[in-house]
Specification:
By secondary structure, the chain is α+β, with helices and mostly antiparallel strands. It has one domain. The protein has two helices and nine strands; from the N terminus they run E-E-E-E-E-E-E-E-E-H-H. The strands form three sheets. A five-stranded antiparallel sheet has the order 5-2-7-8-9, covered by helices on one side. A two-stranded antiparallel sheet has the order 1-6. Strand 8 and strand 9 form a beta hairpin. It is elongated and about 65 Å long.
């Protein structure tokens, strides 16, 4: 077996539980009748060239999910006939304003190796930080209270 080279992103990415989450529409790639999935990628195993190279929790595609801002999102799907499905995948960066930035896409059986370097590059970038300066005090307080915080206005 080859050596597994794991990258330590703890210096650049805070743990998922400590990062600001944003509600994003996770796209559905391919045809919903075929295999499809999405994953928040936290690390890449460079010794693999298949979908198993991408490590992190799965999220449901085709709907709104809470995902940490600055995360790398890998979305996979298939099109075509059941006998001859055509794989396709996209890599997105989750922005602090709950938008997605397309970082790369690939089609065909070599999709995972094609996107592996793109994902590694995205993981090495500093995460985007949400600019909350334009959000009203009431909206911020409501969000904190929905998470169980007790919030009082300044005196």
């Amino acid at each position: 077996m080859g050596m597994c080279r794991m990258r330590d992103h703890s210096r650049t990415l805070a743990p998922m539980t400590d990062r600001i989450t944003v509600a994003v529409e996770v796209p559905l790639v391919g045809d919903e009748r075929h295999k499809n999935w999405a994953k928040v990628v936290e690390a890449v195993d460079s010794s693999r060239s298949s979908g198993w190279a991408f490590e992190g929790p799965f999220v449901a595609p085709g709907g709104i999910q809470d995902v940490p801002a600055g995360s790398v999102l890998l979305v996979y799907g298939e099109r075509g006939s059941r006998a001859n499905p055509q794989p396709q995948a996209r890599v997105y960066r989750i922005n602090g304003d709950a938008t997605l930035s397309l970082e790369g896409e690939a089609k065909g059986r070599a999709w995972a190796r094609t996107l592996r370097d793109v994902v590694e590059r995205c993981l090495d970038l500093e995460p985007t930080v949400a600019d909350l300066s334009g959000v009203s005090d009431e909206t911020l307080a409501a969000e904190l209270m929905s998470r169980g915080w007790t919030v009082e206005p300044p005196r």
